[in-house]
Design brief:
Length: 422
């Protein structure tokens, strides 16, 4: 059997010659391939013509081996400006904003091309973009609408998973706000410019930006990245149900469903708003100042009555839980054993949480039934607390009596000793 030592010499020599030739060939070709006169020249130019090497080296396209000429055309092998930026060599000249989507789509809407790099990357950005207000505006000749580079940047484009990307979930609201919070830029349009400032007050911003909870929505979660609405959602106003499933299911079977659709009222947004969604409290329900129900219901109508009833129920359970909690706390601090009752009280709290979800069916009886379960538990816990406290009092009296008896005994012994001594 032949080993590598016993291989015939001529083969070995041929292999060495081949390798050397290959190395030489690569050495000759490599600088030519890497030559990029565009970058050499433009990195020395002032803004807006300057493109620095340190910026472009961060760009995903540079990482994938693409360069200036892949987007701009031209001949990066020539040092002379006229030859490098020659129309004959395919140089495209200045890229106007309206041309940007087509330019990017030249590759990104070509599945066969994109597959060579990343088979999992979507290739529908341009199709989606055409359905968005941005795309429609641009098609109608309005160059102020967002194009690909407004959201993705130019020359330092990064995948959205990169925390420094302008479209990373944590940064995207700032990217949209560059236009949508700029009253001057948006002056021509009759839409509000408060989306970002309102969103910043919301529970969603709080969860995503402050607590790093990536399951909370940012602008593009609700509005879609490229399209008018995220895939599978008929309208942006319906997007809430993709995450808040229970509330949405209850709403679907509620007496609000039919009249809201008939009047074209969005389900969740009618009561919670869209951008500045706050943490709801019991004040939102009922007929008080901050209640949403009074927007549509008037004194005495069935909705008004139901709202008052639900509010009352929630209030009752809240107070019962608070009273039970207080007495159990006192009992515990006095050294009484109330662990089980405290555990049971957690169930009553769960019932309260459940009732706040059940509200979305807008049926007073269903809320009442959640409340009743919780109220019975909390009332039982209160009784346990009371019993523990009277037990404590009983023990204290017992202890008092024993102490008194001992004191009397001590005094008696003292007197007896005195008597003996005298
Ligand atoms: C020798 C320097 C030099 C080289 C090499 C060079 N450029 Fe330029 N480029 C310039 C200057 C100067 C301008 C601005 C003057 C002009 O418009 O002609 C410019 C303009 C541009 C513009 C903007 C046009 C506009 O009107 O906004 C683009 C895009 C551009 N170059 C791309 C390239 C690309 C791609 C390459 C390589 C294939 C390249 N350049 C090579 C110097 C150079
Ligand atoms: C992924 C595609 C892409 C690559 C790669 C790319 N560019 Fe650009 N470049 C653009 C687009 C799109 C614009 C127009 C930006 C806009 O107005 O939104 C542009 C604009 C420019 C401009 C004009 C700036 C101005 O404001 O007039 C210059 C100059 C330029 N690029 C040079 C370069 C150079 C040099 C490189 C390589 C280092 C390069 N580009 C790589 C897409 C690209
Ligand atoms: C010459 C072809 C080409 C052009 C033109 C082009 N791209 Fe790309 N782009 C690519 C390739 C290849 C990748 C790498 C895909 C991968 O491997 O993930 C990429 C990646 C990206 C990514 C990152 C995708 C991800 O999440 O992984 C973004 C964003 C992007 N391009 C945006 C743009 C924008 C915006 C333009 C127009 C200014 C543009 N591209 C123009 C070829 C191109
Ligand atoms: C209004 C802002 C906006 C515009 C305009 C926009 N994008 Fe995007 N793009 C995004 C966001 C946001 C993401 C996804 C971020 C994520 O996955 O969390 C994204 C993702 C991408 C990706 C990664 C693959 C994917 O689809 O998730 C590519 C590629 C891309 N965009 C290309 C383009 C191209 C090409 C255009 C122009 C036709 C464009 N984008 C226009 C905001 C925008
Ligand atoms: C370059 C500026 C710019 C950027 C960046 C931008 N937009 Fe826009 N957007 C516009 C303009 C201009 C309109 C058109 C306003 C109109 O027609 O009412 C618009 C329209 C919209 C609309 C439709 C408003 C309506 O009329 O109902 C939505 C929704 C929207 N943008 C969301 C976003 C989101 C989300 C982002 C960030 C991912 C974003 N935009 C980034 C400029 C921008
Ligand atoms: C929780 C979902 C959600 C989030 C997050 C969200 N939006 Fe909206 N947005 C909506 C809904 C719902 C509407 C009402 C549209 C409708 O009824 O079709 C709306 C409307 C808009 C409009 C139209 C004008 C207006 O104010 O009514 C713009 C522009 C807009 N949003 C931009 C943004 C921007 C920018 C962000 C991020 C700062 C953002 N949105 C975050 C759900 C959301
Ligand atoms: C992408 C998923 C997602 C979408 C879409 C979404 N939400 Fe949320 N929502 C969350 C998350 C996550 C929280 C934070 C829960 C927490 O505080 O831990 C939240 C919190 C809330 C809260 C506060 C709950 C509380 O107990 O404080 C309300 C109210 C709310 N969302 C309503 C809406 C409405 C209305 C919409 C549609 C306009 C909507 N959400 C769209 C994920 C989503
Ligand atoms: C008719 C008004 C109304 C509508 C419509 C409505 N809600 Fe509510 N929602 C409320 C009230 C009132 C509360 C406060 C309950 C409490 O804390 O007492 C609430 C509380 C919430 C909460 C926090 C408490 C919980 O349930 O855990 C979320 C999340 C929520 N709603 C989501 C939604 C979603 C999603 C929709 C659409 C399917 C929706 N809401 C539709 C009135 C409404
Ligand atoms: C955007 C308007 C609107 C808001 C806000 C609203 N409702 Fe209604 N509600 C209606 C309409 C319309 C009907 C059907 C007509 C009717 O019976 O008054 C209705 C019906 C009802 C019904 C069924 C009444 C019956 O006939 O049996 C109940 C219960 C109800 N609402 C409770 C509430 C509660 C509780 C709130 C506050 C959390 C609330 N609604 C907020 C518009 C609204």
């Amino acid at each position: 059997m032949a080993t590598w030592q016993s291989r015939p010499a001529p083969h070995c020599a041929g292999w060495i010659v081949g390798t050397v030739a290959l190395v030489l060939l690569t050495a000759v070709l490599a600088p030519a391939q890497a030559k990029n006169s565009c970058l050499d020249c433009h990195s020395a130019l002032p803004a807006p013509l300057g493109v620095s090497e340190s910026t472009f080296s961060q760009d995903i396209h540079a990482h994938k081996g693409l360069s200036c000429a892949n987007c701009h055309g031209g001949d990066p092998g020539k040092d002379d400006a006229d030859q490098a930026m020659s129309r004959k060599a395919g140089w495209k000249g200045k890229i106007e904003r309206v041309q940007v989507p087509q330019l990017c789509a030249g590759c990104h809407s070509n599945p066969a091309y994109m597959r060579q790099f990343n088979p999992t990357l979507r290739t529908d950005q341009l199709d989606q973009y055409h359905t968005s207000v941005h795309g429609k505006r641009l098609a109608a000749g309005d160059a102020r609408a967002a194009v690909c580079t407004d959201c993705h940047s130019v020359h330092d484009i990064r995948p959205s998973s990169d925390p420094r990307s302008s479209v990373n979930p944590v940064n995207v609201a700032h990217t949209c706000a560059r236009c949508h919070a700029d009253a001057g830029y948006m002056k021509a349009y009759k839409i509000p410019v408060n989306q970002f400032s309102a969103y910043r007050t919301s529970v969603h911003y709080d969860a995503l930006a402050l607590r790093g909870d990536l399951s909370a929505p940012t602008c593009t979660t609700c509005h879609g990245n490229h399209g008018a609405a995220p895939p599978g959602v008929a309208s942006v106003a319906n997007v809430c149900s993709t995450c808040h499933v229970f509330q949405a299911q209850l709403f679907e079977s509620s007496p609000h469903k039919a009249p809201f659709s008939a009047a074209g009222l969005p389900a969740c947004v009618s009561c919670h708003g869209n951008h500045g969604i706050l943490h709801p409290t019991d004040e939102l329900i009922g007929t008080g100042d901050k209640a949403v129900c009074t927007q549509c219901h008037t004194s005495g109508d069935p909705g008004w009555v139901a709202a008052e009833q639900m509010k009352q129920n929630l209030g009752q359970l809240t107070t019962t839980i608070a009273r039970a909690d207080q007495i159990l706390g006192r009992a515990e601090r006095s050294g009484m054993e109330v662990t089980q009752a405290k555990l049971d009280l957690a169930q009553a709290r769960d019932a309260l949480t459940k009732a706040r979800v059940t509200i979305h069916g807008f049926r007073a009886a269903a809320v009442e039934s959640d409340i009743r379960a919780g109220r019975d538990t909390a009332a039982r816990d209160y009784q346990t607390g009371e019993k523990a406290m009277s037990e404590r009092n009983y023990r204290r009296i017992g202890l008092g009596i024993s102490l008194l008896a001992i004191a009397l005994m001590v005094i008696a012994i003292r007197l007896y000793i005195n008597q003996i001594e005298s």
